[in-house]
Amino acid sequence: MTRRTGSEGGRDRRGAAGGDVGPNEAGLGVRMSRTLGLLRLVAVLFGIAVLLADAGWYGSPARLALPAVAACWGVVFGVVCLTRGLGRDLAAGELLMGLVVAGCAPWAVPPGELATGPNWVLLRLIGTGLTIVWCFPPAVWLPAVLAFVTLYTAVVHEIAAPSALEAALPAGAVIAVPLAFAAVVGRMRRGARRCDEWLALAHTRRRGRGIVAARRQDVAESDRLVHDTVLNTLTGIAWGARDAGGKSVHARCRQSVAICEDLLAGGRDWEGGLMVALGRALDQARATGLGVEFSFTGSTDTPAEVAAAVAMAVSEALSNVRRHSGLPRARVDARTDPTGVLVTVTDHGVGFTPGRYRADQLGVRRSIIDPMGDVGGSATVRSTPGGPTIVTLQWSRRSPDAPAVEVAELEERLARDTAGAAGRGAVVWQLALGIVLVMRLSYYQHPGLVALAWAASGAALVWAGRASRRGPLRGPAVAGLTGLFLVTQIAAGALGQEGSRVPLNWVLVSGLGVCAFLTAACPVRQWLPASAAIAACAGGIVATRYSGGPGIVGYLSVMFYTQAVVQSVVGALGPMRRGTAAAAAEIARADAELAADLVASAKITQDRRARLDRLRADTLPLLAAIGDGRLDPAADEVRARCASSAAELRRAMTSPVAGSDLLEGLEPALRAAERRGVAVRMQVAGTFDAVPGTARDEVVAALSAVLATVTPAATAVTVTLTGTDDTGEAFVTADDPAVAEAGPPVTPAPSAWTQVIDDSGDGQLCVEIRWCPPQRVGGA
Fold first, then answer.
1. 69 Cβ neighbours under 8 A, 6+ residues apart
2. CB within 8 A of 696, min separation 6: which ones?
3. Which terminal residue of the chain, N or C, has fewer Cβ atoms less than 10 Å from its own Cβ?
4. Radius of gyration from C-alpha coordinates of the chain
């Protein structure tokens, strides 16, 4: 996973996929670019509708020149955003076009609309403001937006407005909308980066689990290999095989040595498909005198690990037939198709009563059931005394399991961040409305009542914004908030001066912030009726009190389009959240699997060499000497050595191994901490293969108890594990204000294997947990 580098000011803030952003932030940028591009194309259509509504004034070609140029540029801008993404070069061109439009506004807008109401130029400048806010840092976009307003105000004041204030107030939206959008964008980007950091932590832990799982699976496969070759051969010689002095025993010994050295050293004896793997298993069985009938239908396009598992299981099943069925014959039927693999091994020998397999019954469980389970398949053994025995091996193709839990967690985090960002932007918009209201109180008959309604609706908006941090708003909260804003609109419209557009402008824009917030904070079944009610109320007030003549269509079109733009941007964040969360989780999973494969391959090579060295020390030389004829397998001394080696191998293969379970045992505590809002960073160094089960349980319990005391306000929470052989240390550190307020956390008491050292205090959590054998705990 890519991580951010550099400072915020020096980073390219395009939001498109780049080398310095994580998958959530990159996905946010791509989808926002497409949203802005689509909205610009819709804006071109709205602009054409406005021009048609005022067709009488736009009859001159000179008056149509600027709208035509702006429309052509809008089409280019939208198409490029949709196809190639929104970059800084395109945003710079948009900024220049905005300056041109602002400076030429008096020659492209009817004089009556320049200072008294919204027009397509202001709408165009708002769109430009959104674009540059998304692409540039505040040091660039804020002066640019102020330049738009200053230029527009200057030319309008010079030509059509009675005062500079009258000229500047209509352009207030050009500042207010980008400011609100900037608040939303900042919150969204920070939320995306937090999700990327969370994914990085998940990536680290999944990578560790992948390495552990890969090494564990390789150990299991090696154990099966040793069982099917070395252990079976040693056991047969120790028990006194009927042909102990024959050529078949010498051949089996040589074959066991060759296979162990090849596969444990890293060879891939099973490559070549299912047909080849089964053929080798059948050849081995036939070499022992067993007659095998074989049928195969379908293709050989089977994953190598599946072919290896099936071949191991078939080999063990045929070995059991030879040793236990009482008949020298068996039948193997294999079938493959696009849905999977089905193999049956049938014999008509004496049969047996299937039951639960103990840990020391290695054959059926380790070499038939377990290998099929490791590759996602299944194995069943059906038999009755005196009847046939049928071993069925089945594997089905399936798509990789989607990381549903991580997708849901990521989407929930992004949803809370989106609602918080929209709430913050809505509050900024409400404050801007208050400033405009104060500056134009003279246009209202009872300004105190209007100001009171504005304050009440603003307070309700702040409360709803805080409530949305805990989850989606419920129906009563949405209804109450909507009702307060409807009352505010009605008060502003009814108490405004008759014939003045100023109160009507305020009514139309007063609902933008709350509509955007509701779109982000509640489901569509709730925000759509609420937004429709606010828009209908504003439209009804304007329709009954508008006195500007036939321009009402264009007037309402511009304002309703602005609301549609705002809600479309916020509404697009829903699919954006789902797509970003799914893509980010999938990327994290793929990256973790790749990293685990790379690291595990080296670890597996080391493990294989270590196991091969142990076999080479005694067992393989014994088999090699028998295979070469230097030792007589019928001799009592040789049989005793074989029996001793077989017993040692069986003990090693059936003894419990607890080392790798240490990391796996910590997973519930880490998940619980994340559900409480605590992000934990894991650092692991060393090996834990020699940690006994008792020590592992004590260490897991101690670490879980410490993590349970960490509060959501803590930062830089880190768990560091180091281990060598049967000793090790775990450190839990964090910056947690609760440590200073409530004292050091309650840590578990030392136990047989563990010693706990707590140096927490002054807002710093620092707990060390050491483990070593009980006789050394006191001196650790």
1. 100
2. 658, 659, 661, 662, 665, 688
3. C
4. 37
pLDDT in tens, 759-771: 887 788 888 888 8
Q: Quick one: pLDDT at residue 195?
A: 67
692, 659 in Cβ contact below 8 A?
A: no
Pairing state of beta strands 340-347 and 680-686? unpaired
Q: Give 691-746 pLDDT, tens digit per residue.
A: 777 788 888 888 888 888 888 888 878 888 887 767 888 888 888 887 765 454 55
Angle at the Cα of 324 from the Cα atoms of 322 and 328, rounded to 5 degrees: 35
For the stretch 413-455, pLDDT in tens is: 667 777 777 788 788 888 888 888 888 788 888 888 888 988 9
Model confidence over 530-543: pLDDT tens digits?
888 988 888 888 87
Give the separation between CA 484 and CA 498, rounded to whole angstroms. 24
Query: Could you tell me what percent of the chain has a pLDDT over 90?
Result: 6
Q: What is the pTM of this model?
A: 0.47
Q: Could you give the angle at the alpha carbon of 209 between the alpha carbons of 203 and 212, nearest 5°?
A: 140
Q: Is the pLDDT of residue 748 over 60?
A: no
DSSP-derived secondary structure letter, 85: -
393: which residues sit within 8 A by CB, 6+ positions away? 310, 313, 314, 341, 342, 343, 344, 345, 368, 372, 377, 378, 379
Q: Is there a contact between 348 and 326 (Cβ–Cβ < 8 Å)?
A: no
Taking the C-alpha atoms of residue 564 and residue 567, their distance in angstroms, rounded to an integer, is: 5
CB of 747 closer than 8 Å to CB of 765: no
Phi, psi of 547 (to 5 degrees): -130, 30
